[in-house]
Design brief:
The protein is built from six helices and 26 strands. By secondary structure, it is mainly beta.
Length: about 450
């Protein structure tokens, strides 16, 4: 037994050494990583004092940390270590995907679109419908093998209100109760002219195949709300721009607004409750979205009202509006929070804009609005740094490996831009970034 353990340890050590040697051969830049700037425009002096710190790895064994001076990238300094034991590193895309996502959807919009099920009775019963399976069976009655029959169904004949489902960033033992809760809290009538075409085919074995064509209206990915999780509470708001045409949100017993629900049950052990935390006027709010604030205890609400964009800062303790700002643009933004700045990216008729709100204490003020690169609104991994006069924005989602795009703005617009390209990205298996930070030397 002892000899077997010794042999196993020797094989393990050999495998680790082989892995290290193979990876060093595949990734030759294990000691020093070099950067060059491509597609540079503007005044490079605007980047003086900006530092970018990157961590990246291959399979949790090869680990790099690189410090980059944005004004002198050729002087980037890298430390490299090899770990025989796999380190627990999450890639940037996974870190971002773990960001709390919560929303209410209607499974009717997706499950009928992809309806190719043999257990149609159980599937439709889950959607609160038992009459439709009998009608589909009747449609297929008398068909010969290989034949099919088609019929357009008006869904209002089968569902008075949309079936709803609540998606949470973590599992809950009350998921059935929560779905029933959102159904009671948010009765949304099925549009009278919503239809779906069903095709029933008799297979050669005598069974029926049922398929539904896409619905007669465009309901996107079925997400009807925008939401965030702050501390241990969920915040949700329905937005009329989620569907085309808009659904009817006027029948909510507690009215339209931002709703709040705790993620955990109270001491009584009962399922959580939904409350209209911040009421809104449905007749004036054309679209709404929620974002986290860089300030603890605040919730950010963006609304479109009469074609204008507004930001309302809400106190999460009292439910009172702390600040309301009129912002440039007429589209809901994608927001990214920095240490002392809030970035808002919008797209309107193929025109792309960046708005930056400076954070002073607990108040936001407009610092900058200007056109931006078309890749920014779709970027996934943005990091920013703001020193009061210069705003640096780095995008780490455009390239494989630790290369990135950099833009530096002043109050009047873009000062400098460049593509910071790493030679390690040319390896056959480039490292994956797992952490990034931008900072000005004065911070």
């Amino acid at each position: 037994m002892k000899q077997r353990l010794i042999a196993f340890a020797a094989l393990l050590a050999l495998a680790v050494c082989a892995l290290a040697a193979a990876t060093v051969w595949l990734v030759p830049q294990t000691r020093q990583v070099h950067y060059t700037v491509a597609e540079a425009s503007g005044d490079a002096a605007a980047a003086e004092g900006l530092h970018i710190d990157l961590s990246y790895d291959v399979d949790g064994h090869l680990l790099w940390k690189t410090a980059i001076d944005a004004a002198a990238p050729e002087q980037a300094e890298t430390t490299f270590t090899f770990s025989p034991l796999e380190q627990d590193t999450d890639p940037l895309y996974q870190v971002y995907s773990q960001d709390s996502e919560v929303f209410i959807s209607s499974p009717l919009f997706t499950r009928l679109d992809y309806f190719r099920l043999s257990n149609m009775e159980d599937e439709l019963a889950d959607l609160g419908q038992t009459a439709l399976p009998a009608d589909l069976l009747a449609l297929g009655a008398g068909l010969a093998p290989g034949e099919e029959a088609t019929k357009v169904y008006t869904l209002r004949d089968y569902w008075a209100f949309l079936p709803l489902s609540l998606w949470l960033p973590q599992s809950s033992q009350y998921y059935r109760e929560l779905d029933a809760l959102v159904q009671r809290t948010f009765p949304i009538p099925v549009p009278e002219d919503l239809t779906a075409e069903a095709t029933v085919t008799m297979r050669r074995d005598g069974s029926l195949e049922v398929s539904f064509s896409p619905l007669s209206m465009d309901y996107g990915q079925s997400e009807l709300t925008d939401g965030v999780v702050l501390e241990d509470k969920v915040y949700l708001v329905f937005s009329q721009d989620k569907t085309e045409p808009a659904l009817d949100y006027s029948r909510f017993p507690d009215g339209y607004g931002v709703y709040r629900m705790p993620l955990t049950a109270d001491s009584s052990g009962l399922p959580p409750r939904l409350e209209n935390f911040f009421p809104l006027d449905l007749s004036t709010v054309e679209a709404a979205s929620l974002e986290k604030s860089p300030v603890p205890g605040q919730l950010l609400l963006f609304t479109l009202e009469a074609g204008r964009l507004y930001l309302t800062v809400i106190d999460t303790d009292s439910g009172q509006a702390l600040q309301r700002l009129s912002l440039p643009g007429a589209a809901l933004p994608v927001a990214y929070t920095g240490e002392n700045v809030l970035l808002l990216l919008t797209e309107e008729e193929q025109a792309y804009s960046l708005t930056a709100l400076a954070l002073e204490g607990r108040q936001f003020s407009l610092f900058l609005t200007c056109p931006c690169d078309e890749t920014l609104p779709g970027a996934r991994f943005l990091h920013s740094a703001f020193d009061g006069t210069r705003l640096a924005v780095a995008d780490f989602s455009r390239y494989l490996g630790p290369s990135f795009s950099l833009w530096i703005y002043g109050q009047d617009g873009l000062l400098y831009a460049g593509q910071y390209l790493s030679d390690i990205a040319t390896a056959s298996d480039p490292p994956t970034p797992n952490a990034a930070a931008c900072r000005w030397s004065s911070h």
